[in-house]
Write a structure and sequence with these properties.
alpha+beta; Alpha-Beta Plaits
Length: 105
């Protein structure tokens, strides 16, 4: 299962006591997930309003996704948006199949 995860700083929440250490921990956490294939890609969004970063995460279940998100060192300080993804060719194949049925072909 693939999910697009966007992250933005949570307003009204005090940040980490040591932001440099927190940034280093987040970088280490993300790079380990990129190396083991749990994360396909991750990007910072330039001029990050309203989104600070995005990533595509691969997991076997919703529970595994929750575990990964909770392990994010900045989890207490950010808002997350999670969107499920599907294979684009599967989408096109099913769309074509449905359109052909509707057209009587």
């Amino acid at each position: 299962m693939k999910f697009l995860v966007s992250v933005k700083n949570r307003t009204g929440v005090r940040g980490p006591d040591d932001p440099v250490a927190a940034a280093r921990a987040a970088k280490k956490w993300l790079n380990s997930l990129l190396e083991d294939g749990t994360v396909d890609c991750a990007y910072n969004v330039v001029a990050s309003d309203p989104i600070g970063g995005i990533a595509i995460i691969n997991v076997d279940s919703h529970e595994a996704l929750m575990e990964q998100l909770f392990a994010f060192p900045h989890f207490p300080y950010v808002d997350l948006q999670v969107l499920p993804l599907s294979d684009i060719n599967h989408y096109f194949d099913k769309s074509i199949e449905i359109m052909q049925k509707l057209a009587g072909k």
